[in-house]
Specification:
Layout lengths: L5 E6 L5 H14 L4 E5 L6 H10 L7 H13 L2 H9 L3 E5 L2 H10 L4 H5 L10 E6 L2 H6 L11 H14 L5 E4 L4 H25 L14
Parallel strand pairs: 1-3, 1-4, 2-3, 4-5
The structure holds 2'-deoxyguanosine-5'-monophosphate.
The site of 2'-deoxyguanosine-5'-monophosphate (DGP) has 13 residues, from helix 3 and helix 5.
Pathway: Pyrimidine metabolism; dTTP biosynthesis
EC number: 2.7.4.9
Family: Belongs to the thymidylate kinase family.
């Protein structure tokens, strides 16, 4: 049996990640796949509650301390993510370590320093980047009340995301319709899953998880 695929959706605020994640989960379920949604930050854990207090301006925290909390919030999910993937469940993940680096670097922290705490996290099998110009994000009803929802910061975040872009990323134009984006994302994901299933039938060795996020 092929292990589950780790499908990541990254992007700027207002790009439609959460909508696309739930549409993707529903479409994969409808096609008979075992699939779960996983969202970062996960605000339900003890660490996640501290992050929530910070994001909603209920608590002040040093930039580096909060960066480490976001990273710890991903690390605390790793055992469960590993278990699910190895049991054959696909995971659709809403934000991950790229958001961690993009937001903290945009706030002025050093890019390499920001990558370090996330080194060794499980690497996604497929990363979509939903790209939306900040002016368009603003047009979509403006930003909300949370700490990072400000035009100037969002512009810097997008710049860092584009700096982090690798050739493995699938770029999605988030100005397109919800349906058009969904079609592209689903097509790429199904292809990834089919290739993995075909490979698993031929392979003599296990298809291992790669725990090398940001390793050089
Ligand atoms: P969301 O729940 O997806 O709306 O994310 C909440 C906010 O937190 C959003 O403005 C993006 C930001 N964010 C998400 N992940 C990270 C992270 O790892 N580090 C930092 N500094 N910010 C993050």
């Amino acid at each position: 049996m092929a292990r589950g695929r780790f499908i990541l959706l990254e992007g700027c605020d207002r790009a439609g990640k959460s909508t696309q994640c739930s549409m993707l989960v529903s479409a994969l379920k409808a096609r008979g796949h075992a699939v779960e949604l996983c969202k970062f930050p996960d605000r339900t854990t003890t660490i996640g509650k501290m992050i929530h207090a910070y994001l909603t301006n209920a608590q002040e925290l040093d930039d580096k301390a909060v960066h480490l909390l976001f990273s710890a919030n991903r690390w605390e999910a790793m055992q469960s993510i590993r278990r699910k993937l190895l049991s054959g469940t696909h995971l659709v993940v809403d934000r991950y370590a790229y958001s961690g680096v993009a937001f903290s670097t945009a706030k002025g922290l050093d890019l390499t320093w920001c990558k370090n705490p996330d080194r060794g996290l499980i690497r996604p099998d497929l990363t979509f980047f939903l790209d939306l110009p900040t002016s368009e994000a603003e047009r979509r009803g403006g930003f909300g009340e949370e700490r990072y929802e400000k035009r100037e910061l969002q512009e810097k975040v997008r710049d860092v995301f584009l700096q982090l872009q690798s050739k493995e990323w699938v770029m999605i134009d988030a100005c397109k319709s919800v349906e058009a984006m969904h079609h592209e994302i689903l097509k790429e994901t199904e292809h990834k899953i089919q290739v993995a299933e075909a490979d698993a039938k031929l392979a003599e060795e296990d298809d291992v998880l790669v725990e090398d996020m940001f390793q050089d």
